[in-house]
Specification:
single chain, 437 residues, mainly beta, four-stranded antiparallel β-sheet, 1 helix, Secre_tail
């Protein structure tokens, strides 16, 4: 949030109508400052997303304000990065439970999509071409396919290069897919419903879990205490035939779900926040994707202790700069935010000796991994990412160990397009192309 290349932590304090920002500390990477709290800035902010919506290379805070207050946007300060301007609100004509950010109309600017809980509608706010970072005062509304809808995600599920909408259907137990219209990008076809395999979907994530190049759907099935996997059709991309395959969280209620490669095998794993946990039990679940049969997972997840109870949302990111995805969680009942450090030691097996450099996934969504093998005579690595105009949009330095180096590069604030990655190690200069979508 403050431009120092370290991931910070942001939490919405729903009942207090507040937002807290914890800054990653340079003296102890992965340790966080005490919270800077923006008190009484929003009306019942249930969930948030971080994204640069005005194109100034500083990530902003976007809030779903459930009690009819719409979407709230707090722009990052131009003069003091990591601090935020007063909230500006936009109506979604409902009570937004959650939201997603992405360029739905293919104009190069991130748009806001909010899911209204009670009436099961989606409100789409297109980013202004004339004043990026501002939006129409009232959203365009689409039926989501079910009342009491909960989770929402964006992803290109039919492979046409446009972001589609995936929503959890609430009490219907279904998942709705709204395809982006090819004739008019940024508008959506009616929802098509699919069985989530559970009783009350709470959250959804989109990603290619089985490695076939098509985006699949992962559902946190809420009251069922499981996740459901809907694999994208091989013959008709954008459809999800058959009932979801479910895997147990071993707990009472999967409230949230995210995807990320937590064990370094290049396959996305599943992380859940388990809400209705009993005292003293673990409240974060990890399903490790099968290396030999991608797209399949253990029957029951590994449960991790988040240091609290009733975990709401989870997020993944490399908070301490060691190349491994860590987990952040927010615990509702104990009013705490927690960091679970990844202690895996998989670097030596992740970089085959025959490979000098690897980038994956490519195309990248939200982030990609750079792996560089050991290079004789080089002790450090400098990485720069250039956009199509030749501007540096990311820069980081890292030591080169005897096994090599593994870096996670955050792309969630970059516009879709083709970027050039330049890696300088000793006397060696390497370049690669990476596609961001």
């Amino acid at each position: 949030m403050n431009g120092d290349s370290r991931l910070d932590l942001i939490a919405s304090i729903t009942a207090a109508n507040s937002v807290s920002v914890f800054i990653n500390q340079p003296s102890a990477s992965g340790a966080f400052s005490t919270a800077t709290t923006y008190a009484n800035v929003a009306s019942f902010p249930v969930r948030l997303v971080v994204k640069d919506v005005n194109g100034d290379a500083r990530p902003d805070i976007i809030l779903a304000m459930q009690q009819g207050a719409g979407v709230g946007i707090m722009l990052n300060s131009a003069t003091s990065p990591g601090t935020f301007l007063p909230l500006v609100s936009y109506a979604t004509l409902g009570d937004p439970r959650t939201l997603a950010i992405g360029d739905v109309n293919s104009d190069g600017r991130p748009d806001v999509v909010a899911l209204n809980l009670t009436d099961g509608t989606v409100g789409v706010l297109l980013n202004s071409a004339a004043a990026p970072g501002t939006f129409p005062k009232t959203a365009t509304i689409y039926p989501a396919g079910g009342a009491n809808s909960q989770g929402i995600a964006l992803g290109d599920v039919n492979g046409d290069g446009r972001l589609d909408l995936v929503v959890g259907g609430g009490g219907s137990g279904s998942v709705g897919v709204l395809l982006n219209r090819s004739a008019l990008p940024g508008t959506f076809a009616p929802a098509v419903s699919y069985d989530s395999g559970g009783s009350y979907p709470q959250d959804v994530a989109v990603g290619d879990v089985n490695g076939d190049g098509r985006a699949d759907i992962v559902v946190a099935t809420g009251n069922s205490g499981s996740v459901g996997i809907l694999l994208n059709s091989a013959t008709t991309p954008g459809t999800f035939p058959g009932k979801a395959t479910t895997y147990s969280t071993g707990d009472n209620g999967a409230y949230s779900v995210v995807l990320g490669d937590v064990n370094g095998d290049r396959h996305p794993d599943i992380v859940t926040g388990n809400y209705n946990t009993s005292a003293g039990t673990a409240s974060v679940g990890v399903f490790v994707n099968s290396e030999t049969s991608p797209g399949t997972f253990p029957a029951v997840c590994t449960n991790l202790d988040s240091g609290g109870t009733s975990t709401h949302d989870v997020a993944v990111g490399d908070v301490d700069g060691d190349g491994r995805l860590d987990i952040a969680a927010v615990n509702f009942a104990s009013s705490t935010a927690a960091i679970l450090r990844n202690k895996g030691t998989y670097l030596t097996t992740a970089v085959p000796s025959t490979a000098l450099v690897r980038l994956y996934p490519n195309p990248a969504h939200n982030q990609f991994t750079l792996e560089l093998a050991r290079m004789a005579g080089a002790a450090s690595l400098e990485v720069e990412l250039f956009n199509g105009l030749g501007q540096v949009v990311f820069r980081q330095q890292a030591p080169l160990s005897v096994e090599g180096t593994r870096l996670l590069v955050d792309t969630k604030d970059l516009l879709a397009g083709v970027y050039t990655l330049r890696m300088h190690a000793g006397t060696t200069l390497l370049t690669r192309r990476i596609v961001v979508h």
